[in-house]
Amino acid sequence: MMEAQTIPKPIIPRFPSLKFILRAVAVLIVAALFFVPNYVEDTYILHMMILIFINVVMGSSWNILGGYTGQYSVGHAAYFGAGAYTTMLLLQYKQVAPWYGVWVGAAAALVVAVIIGSICFRLRGPYFVLASIAVAEIFRVATLNLKDITNGAEGVLITEIPPLVIGGRLITDWASKVPFYYIGLVFALLIIGVTWLVRNSKLGYYFQAIREDQDAAHSLGIGLTFYKNVALAISAIFTSLAGSLYAVYVGFIDPSTVLGLDVSVQIVIICIIGGIGTITGPVVGAVLLVPLSEALRSNMITDLLIKVGIVGEETRMGLFLKEHLSQAHVLIYGILVVVTILYMPAGIVGFVRRMTARKARA
Amino acid sequence: MAILELRHVSKFFGGLAANSDVSFEVPVGTIMGLIGPNGAGKTTLFNCITGYYPPSKGEIVFDGRAMNGLLPDKVCKLGMARTWQKVRPLTNLPVLDNVIVGALCRTRSVRDARRIAQEQLHIVKLEGKAHLLAGALPIGERKKLEVARVLATKPKLLLLDEVMGGLNPAESEEIIQLILDIRKEGITQMVIEHDMKAIMRLSDRIVVLNSGEKLAEGSPDEIVNNPQVIEAYLGAES
Amino acid sequence: MEIFFQSLISGILIGGVYALIGIGLTIIFGVMRVINFAHGELLMLGMYATYFLHAVFHIDPFVSIVITIPLMFLYGAILQKIFINRILDALPQNQILLTIGLGLIMSNAVMLAFTSDYKILTTTYSSSSVTLFGISLSTPLMISFAITAVITAALYWFLLKTDTGQAIRATAQDREAARLMGINVKRMSIIAFGLGSALAATAGALISPTYYIFPQVGSAFTLKAFVITVLGGMGSVVGATLGGVLIGVAESTGGVYFGSGWKEVVVFVLFLLVLLFKPAGLFGKSRT
Taking the model in full, what pTM does it have? Predict the structure, then answer.
């Protein structure tokens, strides 16, 4: 006991208040987010915010398994889809309200996770990646083929969501984007909170030990299969929440939009670009990627290029971009991933940290 | 009383015997040296004892309990910890966190684990480097970190696989002192080492392996004067 | 029984094309230890090249491979030099992500240029077939199988008999040892990637008379390529050849017995079983 206290406090922060300032700013932003719907009426902005929240949840959930535990799943669409399909099918065909269905969806994702975990966690490295893709693809093709249950390639469209009434008081009738905004915000804060708790608990240490060296971790008393499955379970549950929210919000799902390989890839990309194994990484990734891809999708970039005068509206280039660029919005993902891997493999957050550390040393 | 007992342990890879019919006992509180030429099957034996491979034949009894088929994490929980010949630091984690991971074997509280870890770092004199990334340490300090990390799991039996390999004489001396201190705590140790002087100084008893078989067992004096051992070593080196 | 033989034969015919895809991936993996997730996109580029050579210059798709092969070899070599070469020592997951990124760029660039509309390459013989012993065989599939066989034979000759081929095999066996023996490992890597991409593009060219051509067609083939190489043992050219044929047969017989919608599931289940129980591949020697 005495010995522990004689140890000098290491590394005194350069600006004792920098961390504090950053935290205070984060708290202020979060507080402000709760009031956004009161002041912002532009539905497009709200729409964008909801998408960002959903992507934060997707990225942060993956981050627990991929970033902290080092298990690079490229099959997370399976959990996203499990949530989305369970909630939607219950709502559309059994009239189960989504605020119950979501939890059934999470349970379904957990079942899927147990199946996938029991297969994939026997494998390491690139084989794990390949197996995770294969299992997710099996779920996609099965959903496509089990037409009696899932309606196959035609997908599931919801016609109406029952109004949420608590104690005889109408909470919301889901007519506006505002309820979705708050649900998204709460989910996002929830997964960020969970990540923080995990990181500062025994689980977090064990997850990271597994990421760094599985054999060493094993020899230090860490049950590899158990802890990998715990990481997967947390990850799968929250990914399914994102899936359910997305499905109910958009009102339509089909196998390719919620179970496709692109969904899995997109989840990984959010984390890679933001920075894996950090709490802020997936948030940065989502805040950057969603608006960028939406701007391309809705032709905002082309309009901007035309407005600024780089490209004439009636020129062939202008017409061409107007017609095609919106379809190729994923192009930006590809370019960003390549640039990230080549120039800042620790993602934006890791890159910024290294720059500030270097500045401090200089 | 023996804390560890090997009864006719064999390990085959395909048709090749890496260990065959090895038997010996490690008495509580002693240091057992394990020596032998390269490829004698020392590390394989460690891997069998600590659960990385199940032995093909024979029994391993630790603390009165048969260990066959137990996985490494269970083995560690029962009180047997090992270091790696090629050190395996958790590179991207701070030195302190490396040791905390070890300490969490005995507690769920990160705060307790941090306290234990700090004590262990103090013992191996790494407390000043607690907040560096483990990957940034030079080899000598990595070896010490490895020892601190396994000590944090509160083992009854410690298996040290060439902790002095690649170290300069001053660093080796530090490790020797450390091993002797650990014995004072009552922790039994099994040590694989190539440095003969060190092993003779440290060990209470020595087992010699050659081509996977036990060639000899005895006190350091008996081993140095054993003609078979001398021949095996000279034979291997010529 | 007739149905079984019918599906068996068409499986073998399409399996030849799959073998080309698998061999390309396995050579790249063997020489560089990089799993190329953009492999299907290289195939897709081959399809588009074939389509335009046919649409603009009226070159028969099976003839046009003499243009597509060198073109895509060059393209692959450049990709290696600019991108892949820089991540050879990176973490495997980062290598995978880089190639995923390159694949996204390729498919979306094609989409940007030619829209996501399906294109169909029609030749006079596209839907013609020959009946042999009561089994009907599609003409384009038969021609493509014959070309596949010739290319595979040429490739084996190249790998076994030429100096460059032997150097590639040596590099695949042990990169460090090859370097010490004075083999220009960097050059071999460039050649290997060029070769891999040329093979993928050839496969694309050969199937273009019978498949829809669209920017996202690649990802299904990337997955198939993995299955084939894992089945055959990562890095084994012979394994990939057999694996390709096996997957072709599994798909077409699986399609007959479980319904065509399920044929991919059959392939993936087979894949998982091999990963779990024979990770060195069906034809590889197991380690322990």
Answer: 0.88
